Amino acid sequence: MYVFQCEDSIDGIFSGVYDAWASRLGHKNIQLSSGPNANYTLFCEYIPVTADFEKSRKVSRTLIQRIGAAFYEDICSCAMADGSLKKLPMDKANAIYQTIVLALACKKGADVLQQLSEPCIFCVFLLRRQTRNEAHHLLEFLRFSELENGILFAQIHPKNDVLPILAPHFANRLPLENFIIYDATHQTAAVHSASKEYLIADARDLPLKRQMQQFSTNEAHFRSLWRAFFDTICVEERKNPKLQIQNIPKRFWADTVELADRI
Predict the structure, then answer these.
(1) Based on the domain organization, do 180 and 233 belong to the same domain?
(2) pLDDT tens sequence across 134-158
(3) N or C: which end of the chain has fewer CB within 10 A?
(4) For 30-55, what is each residue's pLDDT tens digit?
(5) Which domain holds residue 14?
(6) 236 vs 231, 239, 241, CA distance in Å?
(7) What is the mean pLDDT of the chain?
(8) Cα(99)–Cα(118) distance, integer angstroms
(9) What three-state secondary structure class fits 28?
């Protein structure tokens, strides 16, 4: 068995798909692994894969042209998921590779995603749903704050890499605003300039932690008003902490003005 070890990212996994397919070692003899292996298996040859944008672009183009844009988006949603979900049938990268192999072997390749009895497709289904559910949640609860320089800033701590889903949504709805959405978990940022396209950048070296505390005078005032409103409308006798946590899990509270002080 040949195990291609790739980076846990869309470009990393698609580069692994490209190298595995080009190796011509036989699909049944190939597995992909997203990230380092804790335990190596006897009689397996481990092949490291370097993330390569050109290889990733070629795989993306092939999926869109031969199977369809909807299938490509589903695979990307799976690749953006946190692969540590319990009880997964197989590694995320391997599920993506095996699903692509099945899809390219069928006349109507996109239909393979309905075959949930296949372990690889069931894995893709679980991870795709996980990513999209969290993205949907953040589309509803993401909060922007106005900084001193007038930029709208939002910080999130998602489990999955949902920034590629959030960025186009807010760029479409706030086309005339300068805003930044900072993913503190993956240390990336979606940066949008007014009337221009957004970009997603590596934020590890950006001084965002210092800037995010420099709120404008209006922002501090409106935060105070919002907290007062939130506390005023609360009916003490009808408090339901369990329902509150169900609607907005505690891991999101740090990024929510009215709940940050209650952690």
Answers:
(1) yes
(2) 999 999 889 899 998 899 999 999 9
(3) C
(4) 999 987 665 667 788 999 999 999 99
(5) 2-132
(6) 10, 6, 11
(7) 89
(8) 9
(9) helix
Residue 158 located in a structural domain: yes
Distance CA 259, CA 28 (A): 51
pTM (two decimals):
0.86
Name the phi and psi angles at 45, rounded to 5.
-105, 125
Work out whether strand 198-202 and strand 188-192 pair parallel, antiparallel, or are unpaired.
antiparallel
pLDDT of residue 177: 95
Final residue of a structural domain among 100, 132, 164: 132
Residues 104-129: pLDDT tens digits? 998 888 899 999 999 999 999 999 99
Tokens of 84: 């540590």
User: Residue 230 corresponds to which tokens in the numbers above?
Assistant: 């939130």
Positive or negative: CA dihedral 89, 92, 97, 99: positive
Output DSSP code: residue 190: E
